[in-house]
Specification:
Structural class: mainly beta
Distance between the termini: 10 Å
Length: 378
Protein backbone atom coordinates (compact mmCIF):
# COMPACT_ATOMS: atom_id res chain seq x y z
CA UNK A 1 0.00 0.00 0.00
CA UNK A 2 1.71 3.19 -1.16
CA UNK A 3 0.92 6.61 -2.61
CA UNK A 4 -2.62 7.89 -2.16
CA UNK A 5 -3.56 5.81 0.92
CA UNK A 6 -0.25 5.41 2.76
CA UNK A 7 3.07 7.20 2.91
CA UNK A 8 6.31 7.00 4.86
CA UNK A 9 7.70 10.24 6.28
CA UNK A 10 10.73 11.27 8.28
CA UNK A 11 10.45 13.32 11.46
CA UNK A 12 11.41 13.95 15.06
CA UNK A 13 9.64 12.45 18.06
CA UNK A 14 8.77 13.98 21.44
CA UNK A 15 12.14 12.93 22.86
CA UNK A 16 13.96 14.83 20.11
CA UNK A 17 15.15 11.66 18.37
CA UNK A 18 14.73 10.85 14.68
CA UNK A 19 11.89 8.59 13.64
CA UNK A 20 10.25 7.08 10.59
CA UNK A 21 6.47 7.16 10.46
CA UNK A 22 3.96 5.59 8.11
CA UNK A 23 0.61 7.35 7.77
CA UNK A 24 -2.29 5.27 6.43
CA UNK A 25 -5.83 6.45 5.73
CA UNK A 26 -8.94 4.26 5.75
CA UNK A 27 -12.50 5.33 4.82
CA UNK A 28 -15.71 3.85 6.21
CA UNK A 29 -19.42 4.10 5.53
CA UNK A 30 -21.68 4.70 8.54
CA UNK A 31 -24.45 2.10 8.72
CA UNK A 32 -27.85 3.08 10.21
CA UNK A 33 -27.08 1.35 13.53
CA UNK A 34 -23.79 3.26 13.85
CA UNK A 35 -21.52 0.47 12.64
CA UNK A 36 -18.65 1.44 10.34
CA UNK A 37 -17.95 -0.72 7.29
CA UNK A 38 -15.25 -0.19 4.64
CA UNK A 39 -16.37 2.32 2.04
CA UNK A 40 -16.51 1.50 -1.64
CA UNK A 41 -14.45 4.62 -2.38
CA UNK A 42 -11.36 5.40 -0.34
CA UNK A 43 -10.40 9.02 0.34
CA UNK A 44 -6.70 9.68 -0.23
CA UNK A 45 -4.27 11.10 2.28
CA UNK A 46 -4.31 14.89 2.43
CA UNK A 47 -0.73 15.73 1.53
CA UNK A 48 -1.09 19.53 1.71
CA UNK A 49 -3.37 21.60 3.92
CA UNK A 50 -6.43 22.93 2.06
CA UNK A 51 -7.62 26.48 2.80
CA UNK A 52 -10.89 28.12 1.80
CA UNK A 53 -10.01 30.81 -0.78
CA UNK A 54 -13.06 32.82 0.20
CA UNK A 55 -12.40 33.08 3.95
CA UNK A 56 -9.29 34.36 5.77
CA UNK A 57 -7.22 31.38 6.87
CA UNK A 58 -10.16 28.97 7.09
CA UNK A 59 -8.68 25.46 7.11
CA UNK A 60 -10.86 22.99 5.20
CA UNK A 61 -8.58 19.97 5.58
CA UNK A 62 -5.33 19.68 7.50
CA UNK A 63 -2.44 17.69 6.10
CA UNK A 64 -2.28 14.03 7.16
CA UNK A 65 1.51 13.94 6.85
CA UNK A 66 2.56 15.14 10.29
CA UNK A 67 5.15 12.52 11.35
CA UNK A 68 3.97 12.57 14.97
CA UNK A 69 0.97 13.83 16.92
CA UNK A 70 0.76 13.71 20.69
CA UNK A 71 -2.98 12.96 20.71
CA UNK A 72 -5.85 11.99 18.43
CA UNK A 73 -7.72 14.77 16.62
CA UNK A 74 -11.49 14.23 16.41
CA UNK A 75 -13.16 16.37 13.75
CA UNK A 76 -16.89 16.52 12.93
CA UNK A 77 -17.98 18.29 9.74
CA UNK A 78 -21.47 18.94 8.45
CA UNK A 79 -24.46 20.57 10.14
CA UNK A 80 -26.32 20.71 13.42
CA UNK A 81 -29.97 19.62 13.28
CA UNK A 82 -32.70 20.62 15.74
CA UNK A 83 -34.94 17.75 16.93
CA UNK A 84 -37.82 20.10 16.06
CA UNK A 85 -37.74 23.70 14.81
CA UNK A 86 -36.43 25.76 17.75
CA UNK A 87 -34.76 29.05 18.58
CA UNK A 88 -31.80 27.24 20.15
CA UNK A 89 -30.56 23.74 20.90
CA UNK A 90 -27.33 21.98 21.82
CA UNK A 91 -25.17 19.72 19.66
CA UNK A 92 -22.37 17.65 21.12
CA UNK A 93 -19.59 15.17 20.43
CA UNK A 94 -18.52 12.66 23.10
CA UNK A 95 -15.51 10.38 22.81
CA UNK A 96 -12.99 8.79 25.18
CA UNK A 97 -14.49 10.46 28.25
CA UNK A 98 -14.49 13.93 26.67
CA UNK A 99 -17.60 15.86 25.62
CA UNK A 100 -17.65 19.06 23.59
CA UNK A 101 -20.94 20.97 23.35
CA UNK A 102 -22.06 23.76 21.06
CA UNK A 103 -25.08 25.98 21.59
CA UNK A 104 -26.81 26.42 18.24
CA UNK A 105 -28.87 29.59 17.80
CA UNK A 106 -31.09 31.02 15.11
CA UNK A 107 -30.20 34.34 13.48
CA UNK A 108 -30.12 37.34 15.81
CA UNK A 109 -29.58 41.06 15.52
CA UNK A 110 -27.74 43.49 17.77
CA UNK A 111 -29.10 46.96 18.42
CA UNK A 112 -28.26 50.02 20.46
CA UNK A 113 -30.99 51.21 22.80
CA UNK A 114 -31.86 54.93 23.19
CA UNK A 115 -29.89 54.87 26.45
CA UNK A 116 -26.80 53.41 24.76
CA UNK A 117 -27.16 49.80 25.88
CA UNK A 118 -26.42 46.92 23.52
CA UNK A 119 -29.31 44.48 23.10
CA UNK A 120 -29.65 41.19 21.24
CA UNK A 121 -32.89 40.15 19.58
CA UNK A 122 -34.47 36.78 20.28
CA UNK A 123 -33.08 34.07 17.98
CA UNK A 124 -35.15 33.17 14.95
CA UNK A 125 -36.54 29.67 14.68
CA UNK A 126 -34.03 27.34 13.02
CA UNK A 127 -33.89 23.66 12.12
CA UNK A 128 -30.39 23.34 10.59
CA UNK A 129 -27.15 25.30 10.94
CA UNK A 130 -23.88 24.46 9.11
CA UNK A 131 -21.01 23.69 11.44
CA UNK A 132 -17.62 25.30 11.12
CA UNK A 133 -15.82 28.46 12.11
CA UNK A 134 -17.69 30.68 9.64
CA UNK A 135 -20.80 30.58 11.88
CA UNK A 136 -18.85 30.86 15.16
CA UNK A 137 -17.72 33.96 17.06
CA UNK A 138 -14.85 35.86 15.47
CA UNK A 139 -14.17 37.71 12.24
CA UNK A 140 -12.85 41.23 11.79
CA UNK A 141 -14.06 44.70 12.68
CA UNK A 142 -14.62 46.09 9.16
CA UNK A 143 -15.53 49.53 10.51
CA UNK A 144 -12.23 49.83 12.44
CA UNK A 145 -10.34 48.70 9.34
CA UNK A 146 -12.08 51.30 7.17
CA UNK A 147 -11.52 54.02 9.76
CA UNK A 148 -7.85 53.33 10.52
CA UNK A 149 -6.65 51.49 7.43
CA UNK A 150 -4.42 48.43 7.30
CA UNK A 151 -0.78 49.21 8.20
CA UNK A 152 0.17 45.68 7.10
CA UNK A 153 -0.89 46.37 3.50
CA UNK A 154 2.42 48.06 2.67
CA UNK A 155 4.33 45.04 3.98
CA UNK A 156 2.66 42.45 1.75
CA UNK A 157 5.36 42.71 -0.90
CA UNK A 158 7.97 41.48 1.61
CA UNK A 159 5.85 38.84 3.37
CA UNK A 160 5.52 35.26 2.12
CA UNK A 161 2.31 34.35 0.28
CA UNK A 162 0.69 32.07 2.85
CA UNK A 163 -2.95 31.05 2.29
CA UNK A 164 -3.62 31.04 6.02
CA UNK A 165 -2.65 34.72 6.28
CA UNK A 166 -4.78 35.96 3.37
CA UNK A 167 -6.69 39.11 4.29
CA UNK A 168 -4.87 39.57 7.59
CA UNK A 169 -5.12 42.96 9.27
CA UNK A 170 -4.74 44.28 12.85
CA UNK A 171 -8.49 44.13 13.53
CA UNK A 172 -9.14 40.40 13.12
CA UNK A 173 -9.96 38.12 16.02
CA UNK A 174 -6.87 35.90 16.47
CA UNK A 175 -8.89 32.85 17.56
CA UNK A 176 -11.10 32.87 14.45
CA UNK A 177 -10.60 35.45 11.68
CA UNK A 178 -13.25 33.68 9.56
CA UNK A 179 -16.12 34.07 12.05
CA UNK A 180 -18.70 36.74 12.86
CA UNK A 181 -19.49 39.12 15.72
CA UNK A 182 -16.09 40.61 16.61
CA UNK A 183 -16.34 44.34 17.21
CA UNK A 184 -13.92 46.83 18.74
CA UNK A 185 -15.38 50.31 18.52
CA UNK A 186 -18.93 51.27 19.47
CA UNK A 187 -21.14 52.96 16.93
CA UNK A 188 -24.79 52.46 16.11
CA UNK A 189 -24.01 51.63 12.48
CA UNK A 190 -21.38 49.04 13.38
CA UNK A 191 -23.52 47.37 16.04
CA UNK A 192 -26.72 47.23 14.03
CA UNK A 193 -25.05 45.90 10.87
CA UNK A 194 -23.26 43.16 12.79
CA UNK A 195 -23.89 39.47 12.13
CA UNK A 196 -24.04 37.53 15.40
CA UNK A 197 -22.76 33.93 15.64
CA UNK A 198 -25.06 30.94 15.29
CA UNK A 199 -22.62 28.68 17.16
CA UNK A 200 -21.49 29.44 20.71
CA UNK A 201 -19.65 27.75 23.55
CA UNK A 202 -22.35 27.23 26.23
CA UNK A 203 -19.85 28.04 28.98
CA UNK A 204 -18.40 31.11 27.26
CA UNK A 205 -21.34 32.98 25.75
CA UNK A 206 -21.32 36.19 23.76
CA UNK A 207 -23.52 38.57 25.75
CA UNK A 208 -24.44 42.19 25.00
CA UNK A 209 -22.04 43.21 27.77
CA UNK A 210 -19.17 41.34 26.05
CA UNK A 211 -19.90 42.44 22.50
CA UNK A 212 -17.40 45.30 22.40
CA UNK A 213 -13.77 44.27 22.83
CA UNK A 214 -12.86 48.01 22.71
CA UNK A 215 -9.08 47.40 22.51
CA UNK A 216 -7.23 44.88 20.38
CA UNK A 217 -4.98 43.91 23.31
CA UNK A 218 -8.12 42.71 25.14
CA UNK A 219 -9.18 40.14 22.54
CA UNK A 220 -8.25 37.24 24.84
CA UNK A 221 -11.20 38.17 27.10
CA UNK A 222 -13.66 37.56 24.25
CA UNK A 223 -15.56 34.27 23.79
CA UNK A 224 -14.01 31.05 22.61
CA UNK A 225 -15.22 30.15 19.09
CA UNK A 226 -17.43 27.06 19.03
CA UNK A 227 -16.60 24.56 16.33
CA UNK A 228 -15.95 20.85 15.78
CA UNK A 229 -13.78 21.61 12.74
CA UNK A 230 -10.05 22.10 12.10
CA UNK A 231 -8.21 24.94 13.83
CA UNK A 232 -6.06 26.83 11.33
CA UNK A 233 -2.27 26.75 11.64
CA UNK A 234 -2.14 30.55 12.01
CA UNK A 235 -4.94 30.96 14.56
CA UNK A 236 -4.65 31.15 18.32
CA UNK A 237 -4.17 28.96 20.30
CA UNK A 238 -2.60 26.57 17.76
CA UNK A 239 -0.04 29.12 16.62
CA UNK A 240 1.05 29.59 20.24
CA UNK A 241 2.79 26.21 20.14
CA UNK A 242 5.25 27.77 17.70
CA UNK A 243 6.08 30.45 20.26
CA UNK A 244 3.98 33.18 18.65
CA UNK A 245 1.10 35.42 19.63
CA UNK A 246 0.73 34.35 23.27
CA UNK A 247 -0.65 37.29 25.29
CA UNK A 248 0.28 37.99 28.85
CA UNK A 249 -2.54 39.70 30.72
CA UNK A 250 -2.51 38.55 34.38
CA UNK A 251 -5.97 40.03 34.95
CA UNK A 252 -7.43 38.17 31.97
CA UNK A 253 -6.94 34.41 32.39
CA UNK A 254 -7.05 32.52 29.11
CA UNK A 255 -9.95 30.11 28.76
CA UNK A 256 -7.61 27.73 26.91
CA UNK A 257 -5.36 27.58 29.99
CA UNK A 258 -8.29 27.11 32.35
CA UNK A 259 -9.46 24.14 30.25
CA UNK A 260 -6.03 22.53 30.24
CA UNK A 261 -5.26 23.11 26.57
CA UNK A 262 -2.41 25.60 27.00
CA UNK A 263 0.26 25.14 29.69
CA UNK A 264 0.08 27.92 32.26
CA UNK A 265 3.87 28.42 32.10
CA UNK A 266 4.10 28.58 28.34
CA UNK A 267 6.57 31.21 27.09
CA UNK A 268 5.11 34.35 25.56
CA UNK A 269 7.71 34.70 22.81
CA UNK A 270 10.48 32.49 21.49
CA UNK A 271 10.98 28.87 20.58
CA UNK A 272 9.09 26.56 22.97
CA UNK A 273 10.52 23.21 24.10
CA UNK A 274 10.34 20.58 21.36
CA UNK A 275 7.63 18.51 23.04
CA UNK A 276 5.50 21.65 23.38
CA UNK A 277 6.09 22.70 19.77
CA UNK A 278 5.00 19.22 18.67
CA UNK A 279 1.49 20.02 19.93
CA UNK A 280 1.15 22.35 16.95
CA UNK A 281 0.61 19.23 14.83
CA UNK A 282 -2.74 18.57 16.51
CA UNK A 283 -5.45 20.61 14.79
CA UNK A 284 -8.72 19.66 16.49
CA UNK A 285 -10.41 22.42 18.52
CA UNK A 286 -10.16 22.72 22.29
CA UNK A 287 -11.93 19.72 23.81
CA UNK A 288 -11.55 17.33 20.86
CA UNK A 289 -7.87 16.45 21.17
CA UNK A 290 -8.05 13.20 23.13
CA UNK A 291 -5.57 10.54 24.29
CA UNK A 292 -4.68 8.20 21.44
CA UNK A 293 -7.62 6.23 20.11
CA UNK A 294 -6.75 2.67 19.06
CA UNK A 295 -9.94 1.43 17.42
CA UNK A 296 -13.22 0.15 18.85
CA UNK A 297 -14.08 3.34 20.77
CA UNK A 298 -17.58 4.82 20.72
CA UNK A 299 -18.33 8.34 19.50
CA UNK A 300 -21.71 9.78 20.45
CA UNK A 301 -23.13 12.52 18.23
CA UNK A 302 -26.08 14.54 19.46
CA UNK A 303 -28.13 16.57 16.95
CA UNK A 304 -25.47 16.24 14.25
CA UNK A 305 -27.30 14.03 11.77
CA UNK A 306 -30.36 14.56 9.56
CA UNK A 307 -31.36 10.95 10.19
CA UNK A 308 -31.35 10.66 13.99
CA UNK A 309 -31.17 12.94 17.01
CA UNK A 310 -28.49 10.74 18.54
CA UNK A 311 -25.93 8.48 16.88
CA UNK A 312 -23.70 6.05 18.75
CA UNK A 313 -20.88 5.48 16.33
CA UNK A 314 -18.51 2.58 16.98
CA UNK A 315 -15.07 2.98 15.42
CA UNK A 316 -13.85 -0.14 13.65
CA UNK A 317 -11.85 -2.46 15.88
CA UNK A 318 -9.59 -3.46 13.00
CA UNK A 319 -6.07 -2.12 13.29
CA UNK A 320 -3.52 -2.06 10.51
CA UNK A 321 -0.21 -3.79 10.71
CA UNK A 322 2.29 -1.01 10.00
CA UNK A 323 5.97 -1.68 9.38
CA UNK A 324 8.52 1.01 8.63
CA UNK A 325 11.91 0.71 6.97
CA UNK A 326 14.34 -0.72 9.53
CA UNK A 327 17.26 -0.39 7.09
CA UNK A 328 19.56 -3.25 6.11
CA UNK A 329 16.72 -4.83 4.17
CA UNK A 330 14.44 -5.25 7.19
CA UNK A 331 11.01 -3.87 8.05
CA UNK A 332 10.36 -2.86 11.66
CA UNK A 333 6.97 -3.45 13.31
CA UNK A 334 5.21 -0.54 15.06
CA UNK A 335 2.38 -0.04 17.52
CA UNK A 336 -0.27 1.82 15.47
CA UNK A 337 -2.26 4.69 16.95
CA UNK A 338 -4.91 6.94 15.44
CA UNK A 339 -3.80 10.43 14.43
CA UNK A 340 -7.16 11.72 13.18
CA UNK A 341 -10.83 10.75 13.03
CA UNK A 342 -12.90 12.83 10.62
CA UNK A 343 -16.65 12.22 10.96
CA UNK A 344 -19.01 13.52 8.26
CA UNK A 345 -22.55 12.55 9.25
CA UNK A 346 -24.18 14.29 6.28
CA UNK A 347 -22.07 12.16 3.94
CA UNK A 348 -22.45 9.05 6.11
CA UNK A 349 -18.67 8.74 6.24
CA UNK A 350 -15.77 8.35 8.67
CA UNK A 351 -12.09 8.69 7.76
CA UNK A 352 -9.34 7.42 10.05
CA UNK A 353 -5.65 8.24 9.74
CA UNK A 354 -3.33 5.77 11.46
CA UNK A 355 0.33 6.29 12.33
CA UNK A 356 3.04 3.75 13.07
CA UNK A 357 6.49 5.01 14.12
CA UNK A 358 9.91 3.59 14.96
CA UNK A 359 13.28 5.19 15.79
CA UNK A 360 15.46 6.10 12.81
CA UNK A 361 19.18 6.63 12.38
CA UNK A 362 18.80 10.08 10.83
CA UNK A 363 16.48 12.36 8.89
CA UNK A 364 15.73 11.22 5.32
CA UNK A 365 15.20 13.29 2.20
CA UNK A 366 12.01 13.05 0.14
CA UNK A 367 13.98 11.43 -2.68
CA UNK A 368 15.19 8.71 -0.31
CA UNK A 369 11.76 8.12 1.20
CA UNK A 370 10.27 7.60 -2.25
CA UNK A 371 12.25 4.35 -2.63
CA UNK A 372 12.41 3.16 0.99
CA UNK A 373 10.18 0.14 1.73
CA UNK A 374 7.30 0.02 4.21
CA UNK A 375 4.20 -2.10 4.65
CA UNK A 376 0.57 -1.57 5.70
CA UNK A 377 -1.69 -4.60 6.00
CA UNK A 378 -5.33 -4.86 7.13
Amino acid sequence: MRGELARQVSGIGPDGGYLLSVLARRTYRIEPEGRCVPAEQELPLVTRAVFDPGAPGLLLADTDLFPFKLATDVIVRGSAYAPAPARSFEASVSVAGATKQILVLGDRKAALSPTGEVRFSEPAVVDRVPLGHARAYGGADAFALEKHGNPLADLRHCLPELPGLAGHNPYVYPRNPAGVGFLLEPSREAIESLTLPNLEDPADRLTPERLLARRMDRWMAQPLPASFDWLSHFWFPRVAFLGMNLPRQPDTPLVETARGYLPADMPAIGAPPHAVALRFCNGAPVGLQVPYLRGGEEIVLEHLSPDAASIRLRLPAERPGIRVDGRNGKLEATEPVIHSVIVEPDAGRVSIVWRGSAPAHRSYLAEELATMPFDVSW
